[in-house]
Amino acid sequence: MKKKPNAPKAITNRRARHDYDLEGGLVVGLELTGAEVKSLRLGHGQLRGAYVTVKGNELMLINAAINGTTGIPIAESDQTRARRILAKRREIDALIEAKQQGRTIVPLEILTRGRYIKLRISAGKGKKLYDKRQSLKKRDEDRAIATALKERHS
């Protein structure tokens, strides 16, 4: 019987839903080195400020930081290097088309549970400041309604 290691915290991009209007989602693979895989499984990664761009006919993850730890050395120049995204050709073509229509491809979460390390990405349009304010206002109203309902049923 295999021992299950402690499940690491998910590496998420918490600003993504605040800064972008996202539609759909896609789980894709990442081309990583062994040290990067070990580091991500321990939860030493960050997606803040990361984005996906098109180079040639491929998708690249830019500005995602994977930090080494003691025993897992990752050179400082390699911590934020561009990493190739692995996906099916038609998925890549659909994302390239979304990019050409002016949408941004945003990484949402690095999934480390299974055998392979995966990345959840989504195409979205950047929110303006007034959109962000509306979102915050709606969330606060929903929270107030939920607490009022909870108090009424108690």
Number of strands: 9
Gap between N and C termini, in Å? 46 Å
Structural class based on helices, strands and sheet pairing = alpha+beta
Give the fraction of residues assigned to helices.
25-40%
Task: Identify the CATH architecture.
Answer: Beta Barrel
Q: Can you summarize the main beta sheet?
A: 7 strands, antiparallel
Overall 3D form = globular
- Note the run of SSEs as H and E: EHEHEEEEEHEEH
Strand order of the largest sheet: 1-8-9-2-7-5-4
Q: What's the domain count?
A: 1
pLDDT < 50 stretches: none
Descriptive notes:
This protein is α+β, with helices and mostly antiparallel strands and 154 residues long. The chain has one domain (11-127): Small protein B (Small Protein B, Chain: A, Beta Barrel). The chain has helices spanning 16-19, 34-41, 89-100, 129-153, and strands at residues 11-12, 20-30, 45-46, 51-55, 58-62, 65-66, 83-86, 104-111, 118-126. A hairpin with a 6-residue loop joins strand 8 (104-111) and strand 9.
Keywords:
seven-stranded antiparallel sheet; 9 strands; globular; alpha+beta; 154 residues; Small Protein B, Chain: A; 4 helices
